[in-house]
Amino acid sequence: MLTGAGISAESGVPTFRDADGLWEGHRVEDVATPEAYDMAPTRVLRFYDERRAALARVEPNAAHHALVRLEEVLGEDLLVVTQNIDDLHERAGSRHVVHMHGQLLSALCRVCEGRVPWTRELVDHPPCPGCGHTELRPDVVWFGEIPYEMDRILHVLGSAHTFVSIGTSGAVYPAAGFVQHARRSGARTIELNLEPSEGSMWFHESHQGRAGELVPRWVD
Ligand code: BV8
């Protein structure tokens, strides 16, 4: 299962494309890159602090809950790989989740490279709980950085029976290429999205609609 911003849209979390490439008033490329962080750390840290704070105001939706029901049946045979950095899958009850692009509720220390659960603001450069240095950054994979757990993801794709992509535009790699991996491994590939994604031609089935309606219907 690959999920993108579209699965959280009905919870009130803005997607990247629906804001016409602007995101909370910023161009993604201007804030989701290591260069942006080095050039304007306060702007980038404030951008993530605002998104982290907004998490307290949103709840999982019917699509997240449907995936939990599916996991109750499939157990460890279901892996949710999400591009999202929100915690809505976990709050709905999913237990097997990989955040390939990191998480808002985690921070990374640039000195000791420790990863710590994080819910407070980073803009004031708080000390790392591990080493005390004030070099904590969002634990988020920016453009140009290597996504997390790629070996595990590629291994799972190589032996998947079914690959379902939910709420993603298929614009960002390597996630956008996963469907091709799955298809080459003989998996059935299914897309559930508001509109056909950039990779729709790779899917055996492509269903359009809102995740909050499509996913429960597909799961149940
Ligand atoms: C890497 C974390 C090397 C940050 C993110 C040229 C060609 C090809 C590739 C590249 C290239 N130049 C550079 C690259 C690589 C680059 C890339 O792909 N660039 C793109 C722009 C071309 N990728 C990288 O840099 C990646 N790293 O390649 O490293 C490597 C790779 C493998 C192994 C070793 C080394 C790192 C990319 C990660 C960037 N970080 N997020 C943050 O969140 O702040 S990306 C971010 O944008 C998201 O995580 C997500 O991945 C992406 C947005 O995509 P979506 O989730 O799909 O969201 P979007 O808004 O686009 O679409 C929403 C969809 O939902 C829409 O289709 C909409 O119709 C639908 N929808 C809306 N509402 C609903 C709905 N569907 C259902 N129901 C609804 N209600």
UniProtKB/TrEMBL annotation:
Domain of life of the source: Bacteria
Binding site for substrate: 48, 51
UniProt remark on domains: 2 residues (Tyr-48 and Arg-51) present in a large hydrophobic pocket are probably involved in substrate specificity. They are important for desuccinylation activity, but dispensable for deacetylation activity.
SUPFAM superfamilies, alphabetized: DHS-like NAD/FAD-binding domain
Domain Deacetylase sirtuin-type: 1-220
Gene Ontology CC terms, in alphabetical order: cytoplasm
Catalytic activity: N(6)-succinyl-L-lysyl-[protein] + NAD(+) + H2O = 2''-O-succinyl-ADP-D-ribose + nicotinamide + L-lysyl-[protein]; N(6)-acetyl-L-lysyl-[protein] + NAD(+) + H2O = 2''-O-acetyl-ADP-D-ribose + nicotinamide + L-lysyl-[protein]
MF terms (GO), sorted A to Z: histone deacetylase activity, NAD-dependent; NAD+ binding; protein-malonyllysine demalonylase activity; protein-succinyllysine desuccinylase activity; zinc ion binding
Main subcellular location of this protein, as a coarse class: cytoplasm
Organism (species): Nocardioides dokdonensis FR1436
Cofactor note as given: Binds 1 zinc ion per subunit.
The family this protein is said to belong to: Belongs to the sirtuin family. Class III subfamily.
Enzyme nomenclature, EC number: 2.3.1.286
Annotated gene: cobB_2
Residues where NAD(+) binds: 4-23, 83-86, 167-169, 193-195, 211
Keyword Hydrolase (UniProt): yes
Catalytic residues, chain numbering: 101 (proton acceptor)
Keywords from the UniProt entry: Cytoplasm, Hydrolase, Metal-binding, NAD, Transferase, Zinc
Keyword Thylakoid: no
HAMAP family noted in UniProt: Sirtuin_ClassIII (MF_01121)
Cofactor: Zn(2+)
Protein name, per record: NAD-dependent protein deacylase
Annotated signal peptide: none
Ligand binding (Zn(2+)): 109, 112, 128, 131
Catalytic EC class: transferase
Function text: NAD-dependent lysine deacetylase and desuccinylase that specifically removes acetyl and succinyl groups on target proteins. Modulates the activities of several proteins which are inactive in their acylated form.
Subcellular location: Cytoplasm
